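Module 6 notes. Inverse folding takes a fixed backbone as the condition and produces residue identities as the prediction. Think of it as a translation problem where the source language is geometry and the target language is the twenty amino acids. Below is one complete input and output pair. Work through it position by position during the lab.
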């Protein structure tokens, strides 16, 4: 597989060779457990804290607000599971277009007596007024992602948080605002401090880092369900994966420094091409990540993705979170107000700086030729 024909970077990315080396170098240089009290353990711990400081500085936040986890799914789980410690269940509000890692908590919480309110997201955007209308004194947590993983829409987090803070003052109770920021990290510019969210999740493998490593941002420490060995200041137990943490930290600094012009050009050219050929683009023109371009054709997405795969191109049917990803992505697209047939024909192209313009245009032409007679 060559990276220039890989159009599935929202699912996962090719790891930077420099990051693979960083992982290996750190595995060799710091073999000891960072919790051990001998010199080698203390050295590993110092390296871990050096990574945390660098990671936090890339995000412009304090090192104490960053906790390393095994991925965004675990970061999300730590926050959502903490609700189960509440003496009395309350209400959670989440958008209908959250990733499964968030949505799947709906049934778990409901079973424990929590009420879940799901916000629609017409054309891919959550409406702050709708959020406002749904916050009452029982709401304990709100989860709205930064960038949607299926169509790339960027949510109005600042307005959503501002509405939340207003209601907090009205009811004189804290409401935790959680923002799954996986598809935003390194791809759009944002400040966690300006957004004023309480928690955010990140994943290394979406930014050319290693698999199985993620981070959780917490404005304030959180009481969690499984403290386990007490690592990561009691928020995420388990021996720290120092080599991968070093890899994630390196990937973040490399990714942030990348010149995104190529991606913006490709996105613009493909949009113009699909418009000319009357192919429906679902990704909004404004407030959208340039890294994702979703479109819908008359062919069922699994048929088209297979045809494109036969020609050496990797694209996905909306999302790739599980074997049942197509069904899940379709639900998300329907929650945006698109019809069943549009949802069934949705494919997602997602880019990296290595995506070639030439291959992108070839792929667009191929999509047109394969679908024009249906
Ligand atoms: N949230 C979003 C928006 C995602 O796109 C993904 C990955 O597909 C996740 C969460 C889960 O991330 P991870 O694979 O690190 O658990």
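Target side of the pair, the amino acids:
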């Amino acid at each position: 597989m060559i990276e220039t024909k890989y159009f599935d970077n929202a699912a996962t990315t090719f790891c930077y060779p420099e990051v693979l080396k960083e992982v290996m170098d750190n595995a060799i240089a710091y073999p000891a457990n960072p919790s051990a009290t001998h010199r080698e353990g203390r050295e590993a711990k110092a390296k871990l804290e050096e990574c945390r400081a660098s990671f936090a500085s890339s995000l412009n936040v304090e090192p104490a607000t960053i906790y390393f986890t095994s991925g965004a799914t675990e970061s999300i789980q730590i926050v959502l599971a903490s609700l189960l410690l509440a003496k009395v269940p309350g209400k959670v509000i989440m958008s209908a277009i959250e990733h499964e890692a968030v949505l799947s908590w709906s049934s778990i919480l409901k079973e424990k007596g929590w009420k879940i309110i799901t916000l629609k997201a017409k054309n891919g955007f959550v409406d702050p007024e709708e959020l406002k209308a749904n916050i009452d004194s029982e709401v304990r947590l709100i989860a709205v992602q930064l960038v949607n993983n299926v169509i790339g829409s960027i949510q109005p987090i600042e307005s959503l948080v501002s509405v939340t803070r207003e209601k907090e003052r009205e009811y004189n109770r804290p409401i935790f605002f959680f923002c799954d920021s996986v598809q935003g990290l390194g791809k759009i510019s944002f400040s966690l401090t300006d957004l004023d969210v309480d928690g955010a999740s990140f994943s290394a493998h979406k930014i050319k880092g290693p698999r199985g490593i993620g981070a959780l941002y917490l404005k304030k420490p959180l009481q969690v369900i499984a403290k386990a060995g007490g690592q990561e200041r009691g928020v995420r137990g388990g021996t720290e994966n120092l080599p991968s943490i070093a890899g994630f930290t390196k990937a973040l600094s490399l990714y942030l420094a990348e010149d995104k012009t190529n991606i913006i050009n490709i996105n613009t050219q493909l949009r113009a091409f699909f418009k000319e050929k009357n192919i429906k683009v679902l990704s909004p023109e404004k407030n959208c990540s340039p890294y994702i371009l979703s479109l819908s054709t008359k062919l069922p997405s699994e048929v088209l993705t297979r045809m494109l795969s036969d020609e050496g191109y990797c694209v996905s049917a909306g999302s790739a979170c599980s074997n049942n990803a197509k069904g899940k992505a379709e639900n998300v697209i329907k929650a945006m107000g698109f019809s069943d047939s549009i949802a069934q024909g949705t494919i997602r192209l997602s880019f990296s700086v290595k995506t070639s313009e030439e291959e992108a245009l070839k792929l667009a032409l191929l999509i047109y030729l394969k679908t024009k007679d249906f």
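Reference fact for the lab report: Residues 71-73, 99, 101, 145, 149, 180, 182-183, 203, 214, 321 surround pyridoxal-5'-phosphate (CB under 6 Å).
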